[in-house]
Every structure is written in C-alpha cells, then in structure tokens.
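Predict the 3D structure for this chain.
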Amino acid sequence: MGENKLSFINKVKNELKQYFKTSKKYLIVAFIVAVIIVILGYVFAADLSVFFDSAAQMGGESETVFSIFTNNFAIALGMIFGGALLSIPSLFFFGSSSFLFVGYCMMLYGPVMFWIIVAPHGIFEISSFIIALAGALMLTHVEVRIIKAALNKEKSDKDELNNSHDLIKAVGVTVIICFILE
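Done. Predicted structure below.
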C-alpha cells in the first residue's frame, strides 16, 4: 500500500513539473497582463469608482463560502474556455472581474495597506485567475495551430492536434489547479 502511494505522489510530482515546463511562457504572459491591468486600475481609479461603487451596491446580499467558490470557479472556467474564442472573452473577464478592481482597491486603500490588509484574502483567487488566463492562452495557441494546419495543405489537422497534446493536457491540469485554488 505504501509503495502505491509513493508511486502516485511521484507521478503527480512529475505531471506538475511537466505542466509548469509546458505552461511557463503562458504563465509569464498572464502575469504581465495582470500587472498591466492592475496598473490601469490604479491609474484610472477615479473613472472606475462609478462602476465599482454601483456594482458594490447591487451586490448587497451576504455571500457564503460556497457561493464565492462557485462564482470564482465559474469565472476561471469561463476564462479558460474563452481561449477557444482567441482569448478575447478571457481577457475581458480577467480585467473586469478582478484586476481592474485590484488596482482600484490599491488606489482606495493605498498600495501598502492594500498588500497588508486586502491582498491576503484574495491571494488564491488572484493566482487562480492568472493560471486560468494562462490556460486560455494555451487553448488559443492550440486553436491557432489547428487553423494554420487547416490552411496549410502540407500539414493535417490531426497531426497538429497530436503535436498539441502537451498543451491540451496542460489546459486540463489548469482546470484542476483552478478548482483546488478556489
């Protein structure tokens, strides 16, 4: 029994190493996009206050842990599978649901107070949304590869799909990681 458990742990560890090796550049791009959107939220906080203040008044009902989890996981899934639409909806969800708000809150509370008081509550959500955007970018890359193959007579769609196996697997792992983080 102990040997099977160790074998399983080693397999999971190897899969996670492969995941991060495959998704590294997508995670970096997603992180850079997050930083840019936070800066935009910070710079345009005065303009965004009308939007965020009215949204806060609309959501006056109390939230449960389960409702927050399901909402955040639904947003993460929407971002991942928005990659099938060239990541356009993913970038919209990414910016509007979280990172513009993060920049707005940084302006509202001040950067130091934000990182001390507010950020620890959303660290898993922020990480999950960055990973979800990376998943969307991977899915978009697979889609672009298949479209290129369809337009190129020398390559077949099936061959390109087989070449994208690691990316497709990484998208699946992304869904699991987002579920765990939420």
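DSSP finds seven helices and no strands in the chain.
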